[in-house]
């Protein structure tokens, strides 16, 4: 469903391009699903990551889980492995699917709408969004363990994946580029070294993504290990 929502946005964008004048077409943004589709997918993967832990608190099933696995560190580690597998598989599947559909929809339309000269040029974009989708799932898991509320955790994930990246570009220059460059969705092209307007090198982007995971899971582990169930 999340991929379909994103692809509807992409198809609408391409339709607007087809109806635009040549002068307007020259200024169109590229129809890269990393921008138009995958943030929505990452949000839904993040929701799954949050639900992996918050549902146990909301239903009270965390008690039986701790009886079965009394070592909280091990329980959270098991959830981390599960979310990693689901988020990585989902990221790879939906990134690849959205890229294939985007290539079919774009056809022979030229740049700037079509950001790739050849189909293989889309592979780095898909790889970057798969990585950031994985990170979103793990961040959501950590936040869920720390916050314990599905509603509050999902609200934070909405802000990280959809709201803040949209509003960051309204900040004054050059602040908007610095802020936008460290937001999770915008790290996708930077971590694979794809061409973008952002500022980070691939090692710096990878370090920022690692910081998101370490901080979120660290906060979740501290809250999970020190507070009553």
Task: Describe it.
The chain is mainly alpha-helical and 229 residues long. Helices cover 75% and strands 0% of the residues. The chain has helices spanning 2-19, 22-25, 33-36, 38-59, 62-68, 72-106, 123-147, 150-168, 175-181, 187-191, 202-226. Helix 1 (2-19) runs antiparallel to helix 4 (38-59), helix 6 runs antiparallel to helix 7 and helix 7 (123-147) runs parallel beside helix 11. It starts with a helix and ends with a helix. The mean pLDDT is 87.
Please work out how many helical segments DSSP would assign: 11
The separation of the N and C termini measures 33 Å
Structural class: mainly alpha
Q: Considering DSSP H and I runs of 4 or more, what fraction of the residues is helical?
A: over 70%
Number of strands: 0
Assembly form of the protein: single chain
- Extract low-pLDDT stretches: none
Quick take:
With about 230 residues, the chain is mainly alpha-helical. Helix content is about 75%, strand content about 0%. The chain is elongated.
Task: Please give a handful of descriptors for the protein shown.
elongated; 229 residues; mainly alpha; single chain; 11 helices
Topology:
Blueprint: H1 2-19, H2 22-25, H3 33-36, H4 38-59, H5 62-68, H6 72-106, H7 123-147, H8 150-168, H9 175-181, H10 187-191, H11 202-226
Helix pairs in contact: 1-4, 1-6, 4-6, 4-7, 4-8, 6-7, 7-8, 7-11
């Amino acid at each position: 469903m999340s991929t379909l929502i994103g692809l509807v946005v992409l198809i609408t964008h391409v339709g607007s391009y087809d109806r635009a004048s040549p002068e307007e077409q020259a200024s169109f943004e590229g129809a890269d699903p990393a921008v138009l589709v995958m943030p929505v997918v990452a949000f839904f993967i993040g929701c799954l990551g949050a639900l992996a832990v918050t549902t146990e608190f909301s239903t009270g099933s965390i008690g039986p889980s701790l009886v079965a696995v009394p070592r909280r560190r091990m329980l959270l580690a098991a959830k981390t492995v599960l979310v990693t597998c689901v988020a990585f598989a989902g990221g790879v599947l939906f990134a690849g699917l959205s890229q294939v559909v985007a290539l079919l929809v774009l056809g022979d339309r030229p740049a700037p709408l079509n950001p790739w000269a050849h189909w293989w040029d889309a592979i780095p974009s898909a790889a970057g969004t798969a990585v950031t989708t994985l990170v979103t799932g793990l961040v959501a898991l950590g936040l869920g363990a720390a916050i314990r509320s599905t509603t509050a955790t999902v609200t934070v994930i909405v802000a990280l994946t959809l709201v803040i990246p949209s509003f960051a570009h309204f900040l004054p220059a050059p602040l908007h580029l610095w802020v936008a460059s460290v937001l999770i969705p915008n790290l996708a092209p930077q971590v694979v070294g794809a061409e973008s307007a952002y500022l980070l090198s691939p090692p710096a982007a990878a370090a920022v993504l690692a910081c998101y995971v370490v901080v979120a899971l660290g906060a979740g582990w501290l809250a999970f290990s020190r507070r009553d169930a």
